[in-house]
Amino acid sequence: MHATPDLQKRGGQQKSADNRAGQRLQAGDSMAQSKLRNLTVVKEFILVGLSDNPGQNKVLFFLFLAMYLITLGGNASIITIIVADSKLHTPMYFFLLNLSVLDMGFTTVLLPKMLSNLLLDNKTITFHGCITQLYFFAFFATAEILILAVMAIDRYVAICHPLRYTTLMSTKVCTILTTSLWVIGCLRSLLYNVLFSNFTYCGPNQIQQFFCDVPPLLMLSCSDTASYELFILTESSFILLLTLISVIVSYIYIIYTILKMQSKEGRHRAFSTCSSHLIVVTLYYGTIIFNYIRPTSSYSLQKDKLLTVMYTVVTPMVNPFIYCLRNNQVKEALKRMIGRYILHHTV
Hints:
The protein has helices at about 5-40, 55-85, 90-120, 125-160, 165-170, 170-195, 215-220, 225-260, 265-290, 300-325, 330-345, and strands at about 45, 125, 205. Helix content is about 80%, strand content about 5%. It is globular.
């Protein structure tokens, strides 16, 4: 049985339409493959830094080099004084020693790369280098927040429960507390590493900061980061608010106890042991809360750079001076150490 001319014509039209559909599908596949090939995966970032002016960069190099050396020298001095003087082998100074170690690590993660960029005018950092820097930044930032809260609790126990202080803040308890905060810091930074390593970065690759920070990396990602941003905002807020509440509640009880003391000298001595920590907490928590507990839509470039310098560079630098100048025990220990050094080298 032969097909009629109309059937043949319709069959030819159908076959032609199928061919065109197949060609369009192939063209679509080719375009998709072309887009995938043209999607440039960022292999390095450019750290814009604080200034694009070469003249200013030289000035900033010497300024931040001086600040870095002061930070290392000051915190190393605190560690040496505490280790060398047996009278400072107490929970308060054990936590202060940990704070000094964290301050040195915090600045060392950020400033050497920044100084290199300022001096050599080479502002690139590899993707893996950036993720590594983010890991240690998150670790030291988390551990420092926690150690400040632990130090506030230590002062609360010392002033509000002095007779039970040696029992409540025993060597075992202090070791558990410090180990816990280091472990929490490691786990949180590992979580950040996993998240940011799995984001896609396809350009631009300029980080508007002098190190690999969370908000700029979120803004550069091509992935849908809305849910991750909400998660980071929630967990950061939880950690900051939990530790801040611990500090505030501790100091409410501390101030109440100090005001009830009959002796003016006792009140002064009790307050002097807390004032240094209170200044450091205000500097550190204030800048971090304003810088991070908000969505990236309110991210302000120059203001955030200044705030970041405050808590990453300035606070670790001034911590040793705050604790030395306002703490008589540290000043006396420093005098004893200098006296022993002079006596040893003059005999």
